[in-house]
User: Fold this.
Amino acid sequence: MGLTVEHLCISIQGHAILKNVSHRFTEGARTSIIGPNGAGKSTLLRALAGIQPTSSGRVLLNGKDIHGMTRKHLSRSIAILPQGAEAPQATTVEQLVGFGRFPYHSLFGKNDAKKDREVVEWALAIAHVEALRKREVHSLSGGERQRAFLAMVLAQQPKILLLDEPTTYLDIAHQLEVMNIIREVNNKYGITVIMVLHDMNHALQFSDEIVIIKDCGIFASGAPKVIMTEKTIAEVFGVQVDTFVNRTGKMVLSPLRLVDEAGKGR
Amino acid sequence: MNKLSRRFKAHPLGILLILACLALGGGLSSIMLGSVHIPAEEVLSTLLSGSSGEHGQILMNIRLPRTLVAALVGVNLALSGAILQAVMKNPLADPHIIGISSGAGLFGILIMLLFPAWSQLVTPVAFLGAMGAALLIYVLAWKNGIQPIRIILAGVAVSAFLSAFISALMILYSDRVHSALMWMVGGLSARSWPHVAMLWPYTLLAGTAALFAARHINILQLGDDMAKGLGLRVEVARVLLTALAALLAASAVSVVGLLGFVGLIVPHAARLIIGSDYRFLLPASALLGAAVLMYSDTVARIAFSPVELPVGILMAAMGAPFFLFLLRKQL
Assistant:
């Protein structure tokens, strides 16, 4: 399932957030969206999921405008884990993951219970939360919680998974655990992953493609090694970085100092 | 959180069964107890084989309809509060915040004080007032959809505005203010079959709709973005659910007056017992609401006999401390 945006413009309360953005997201790949705060990364992600009103332009799923589809139908193909999802009090992990089956239920709750159970088990297993199934979501640590929510969106059986900063607020081990699950979901089940990431090293390590957003538009996009040059990063983020190659052959960044647009230190 | 059900590992259906028994007990005691005591056997025989004698008259014409009104009002207010707490994402949400009480209050009092001869119009006119106020708040809060916080703020403003007129009326017509006071507090005295007839269609229709909406309410609790991502049309759901809550509360308030605290406290208590899965929380709130109101009305009738307290006073006296208890406990 290919996701494409064409001439997408979004403004919120008169402020332009995205201007004339066009991009074709590679099917079956892991794509990271990075950029400075307020550049419109989350807005683009929300637009891809069809939960962000757009001013003009289109989001196409397999060539079809997603605004012509019903919400329910769309949510069987595209799942989004937004920031700040909350679980109601006393909800267990199992119940939460079960909510992911909502798009497959009819208005009056008719559903294929056996299929639902199978998919929920599958999702619990992939996100490594089987052992936590009876625990209340509120009693979990940040990393466990994030995995529980990940299991919920996986229970939607999406072809395309959209994640908004899935590792924010997690410690380094939990970050890695979440990123590994995301990689497995993509490798093993072929689910296209598009994620907004804060951590550029994660973006370098875990993505096939990177889209850099700056000033309401796409600044650059392509394979990490090609586009993540020291010059580009200085231009986009105003930070001079050192790049290294680590022992797995992946590029890593280390920030050195703030620079202005001409590349001079400040 | 969810302490009882976790401690006893009780199945939600088991808890619902216990609550149903509680409600039945409330109904029975409300029918039996009062200035005239009617023994349980007599209640049963009268209900099964028709009325006979003085007790039968009391039972069929006074106790039974009043008990039914209490139960239906309890169900409607509790369901309305439970729905609103989820839709507004606010634990303080109850039928007050969507203007139901101030709207019903003003229009009910208008009839009672200005046109006391037409007192039979109080219920329908109060219903119109309640729905009108809810609609007004809706319109004022509308801006590319409904945001809970705007509803709450518009609700506070509209309620304050309408309350000004209520106060003005009560002062201008202070000689007739007794009936208005009873209405402001909320009570069940002299409620009978016509009121049952007014209430039950709302309980049946809106109650059934609420139960069908339970899964949608569960999804709504996950936050707007998550709910949209799961395929819920959040704006549509919010509008329909608020309308449902308005209907339920308006029908109850127009019959018994501005009965407070049931819509606020009962859903919280039910949540404490059964958790926040609305498929169980809604029926639990309904049963608990019916039970609480039937027991309270029984107590209000006999505690200071022969003087009868309006049940609203008892609800506030019990509800406020319980609310503080909840506050200390979990919020």
